[in-house]
Amino acid sequence: MSAHTILFLNQKGGVGKTTSAVNLGSALAQRGKKVLLIDLDSQGNLTSATSIDGRKKGIYEVIAGQCRVQDAIQQTPILNLYAIASNINMAGLNIELVQEQQREFFLKNALGELDDQWDYVLADCPPSLGLVTVNAMVWAKQVIIPMQCEYFAMEGLNLLMRTVGNMKKSLNPDLVVLGILFTMYSKRTKLANEVVEDISSFFPNLVFKTMIPRNIRIAEAPSHGLPINVYDSSSSGTKAYKALAEEVIERVARNF
Ligand code: ADP
Ligand code: MG
């Protein structure tokens, strides 16, 4: 059986894409799943949050045909958790790809030789809907949309849903939204609850029951190069990402 391929997608920055990719990945790894993370963002936040070496060959070199995917995979300090680094070269890729034929298919072609050893391959997208993100949507089968409970949440979400729908109609018929994930949630905030209610009634089956609470330990963990479940195993963040892992396992088994 081939891996579940999941993108963390939102054109907005600071919504918890990287945090969720790392911490869901680590929670799945702790559950015994073999997980590969791919950093697609030139900022390399996932690379540093998992303590892999950003100077080694990474996803840019794989996409550019300078390195085989197998040779870009690095082991993280966490059992079962592996990652492919990103570096600043990724910042130029959108423009480099524009001139290429089949420019939307570079990532899919480059990852084609990933073997069947992975249970999950999770990719962290940059905060834009540029060509790198389009490449990611051509390759993956499932999308998780992390979002904050903010006033303009619905506008951004509608654009994302349309974008995924257009990709499904054109370049990747297999693409589906696996779920909408609320991050940095404060249950005592009236606005947060209104946004959750609003979006849940609009997309009733898509919102994950698990919401990630605002938790300072989650924000601290990346500076130690560790996922939350290793940095602080008893934190509310650890519990939340563990619950999310269970929900994801259940969802991918059920209908996708
Ligand atoms: P994105 O990848 O979408 O830009 P990040 O995952 O980098 O977003 O998160 C943005 C910032 O918010 C980071 O500094 C991160 O540490 C912090 N953060 C993310 N999730 C939480 C949370 N649940 N509680 C507290 N801080 C968080
Ligand atoms: Mg990020």
UniProtKB/TrEMBL annotation:
Task: Tell me which Pfam families the record gives.
Answer: AAA_31
Q: Which domain of life is it from?
A: Bacteria
InterPro entries assigned to the protein according to its UniProt record, in alphabetical order:
AAA_dom, DNA_Partitioning_ATPase, P-loop_NTPase
Where does the AAA domain start and stop, copy by copy?
Answer: 4-176
Query: What is the name attached to this protein's record?
Result: Cobyrinic acid ac-diamide synthase
